[in-house]
Design a protein that fits this description.
Blueprint: E1 6-12, E2 23-26, H1 37-46, H2 48-59, E3 64-71, H3 72-89
Antiparallel strand pairs: 1-2, 1-3
């Protein structure tokens, strides 16, 4: 059985003109990811202070809409989609 990888993701409050929202993907402190959604949720619930500190480092004191736990496959799909959007915007001469 292949071990799953889960990440905590902060979704920032507010939407850009293009409909996108800012997010922040957290790594698990010891080895980069969580092995289950339960492990991820427990970490988020029991460690709000370091999460808030990290969010403030990147976004100031902007409000957070929610913090969710997301499977690595979903993260990879999201990143691929964002890369495609960015590449589609690059003018080719």
């Amino acid at each position: 059985m292949i071990a799953e990888a889960w990440f905590a993701v902060a979704v920032m409050l507010g939407v850009h003109n293009n409909g996108m929202q800012d997010i922040l993907i957290f790594k698990q402190p010891e080895h980069g990811h969580f092995h289950s959604v339960e492990e991820c949720k427990t970490f988020v619930q029991e460690n709000p202070a370091p999460l808030v500190k990290t969010i403030w480092k990147f976004y100031g004191q902007r409000p957070v809409e929610r913090v969710i736990c997301v499977n690595e496959d979903v993260i990879n799909q999201f990143i691929a989609q964002q890369n495609k959007i960015l590449l589609d915007r690059i003018p080719i001469y």
